[in-house]
Amino acid sequence: MVGRLEAQGRGELAHKLIPEYLPGCKRLTLSDEYLESLCRSNVTVERSAIREIRGRTIVCENGNETEFDILCLATGFNVQGFLGNLQIYGRNNQSLNDLWKNGYPETYKSINIHGFPNFFLLLGPASAFGHHSAVSVIESNFSVLNNSQVNFAIKTIKYMRKHQITSFEPKKEAQEKFVEGLRKAHQSTVWSSGCKSWYMDAKGQIVSLWPGTIISFMWALYRTSYTSDYICNRSTPK
């Protein structure tokens, strides 16, 4: 990295670009041209936060001012908005949106939720990855386990139909144990090593990522017990 910057005559940029946190704490991106693009004569690298926009001038917290022609607002996405614009209601008219608004978004195996029977969630809390494509966990069949979220949901629905189950939801204690395991596992990961990233909520809790490998996620789904981990209500025979 330093050599590439020095080759462009901009070795002084290294101290601005080398992060103080561990590699992987924020999502790693790869590019063959990124460093060279920062060395262009019309590019200014500014690490200080923006204090205000004054006319066509950006004023930073450190007092630096930079003129601009076009201002691009890279404000990102609501990555903790797991439900999008949907309003989800469960038992006793409980709003899932309200339940998750101010607390940790608890699930069981990142797919089902206690109090919300027959509800399946794809790419919800703790099912994205900081090292792999999320598509694999949603729908891929590459593993011999064949246990993506979609396949798990289909398998579960087939189980419900076979056993005439009309209502299906995880037990509260099973969900609490699962969430406790997630939070404990995250403590020893690079994502909890001190940087601020979109993996975290406003309280600094890792809510978006699975703390292990993609295979461990599929194993977690594979080892799910419908009889011990779920509340199953069956239809009454006529």
3D structure, described in words:
- The chain folds into two domains: 2-67, no CATH class; 91-234, 3-Layer(bba) Sandwich (FAD/NAD(P)-binding domain).
- 29% of the residues lie in helices and 10% in strands.
- The chain contains nine helices and five strands.
- It has helices at 2-7, 14-17, 34-38, 96-101, 135-139, 149-162, 172-186, 214-222, 226-229; strands at residues 50-54, 57-60, 65-67, 165-170, 230-234.
- Belongs to the FAD-binding monooxygenase family.
- This is Monooxygenase.
H/E series: HHHEEEHHHEHHHE
Number of strands: 5
How much of the sequence lies in strands comes to 5-15%
Radius of gyration, Cα only, in angstroms? Answer: 23 Å
Task: Examine the secondary-structure arrangement and name the CATH architecture of the largest domain.
Answer: 3-Layer(bba) Sandwich
Shape estimate: elongated
List the domain count as a whole number.
Answer: 2
The largest sheet, given as strand count, sense and whether it forms a barrel, is: 3 strands, antiparallel
Question: Which runs of at least 5 residues are low in confidence (pLDDT < 50)?
Answer: none
* CATH superfamily (homologous) name of the largest domain: FAD/NAD(P)-binding domain
Mean pLDDT: 91
The number of helical segments is: 9
Fraction of residues in helices? Answer: 25-40%
In the sheet with the most strands, the strands line up as 1-2-3
Structural class: alpha+beta
Oligomer: single chain
CATH topology of the largest domain: FAD/NAD(P)-binding domain
CATH class call of the largest domain: Alpha Beta
